[in-house]
Amino acid sequence: MRSALLCIAALSLGTSSPAATFTITHFGTPANAQPAIDRAAEIWGSILVSDVPIKVAVSWFPLGASALGVTFPNGRKDFPGAPVASTWYASCLANSIAGTELNPGEDDINVYLNSGTNWYLGLDANTPAGQYDLVTVALHELGHGLGFVGLAKKVGSEGSFGQVLLSDFAPLITTYPWPEQEGLPGIFDRFLTSTASGPLVDLMNPSTALGSAFTSNQVYFNGTNAMSANGGQTARIYAPAAFALGSSCVHLNESTYPVGNPDELMTPFSSAGHANHWPGPIAIGVMRDIGWMVNGVGVPEQQVQSTWGLTLLPDGHLHPFGLETRERLTILDAQGRKLLEASGNGPIALARWSSGPCIALRMSTGEAQRFVLP
Ligand SMILES: [Zn+2]
Question: pTM score > 0.85 for this model?
Answer without folding.
Answer: no
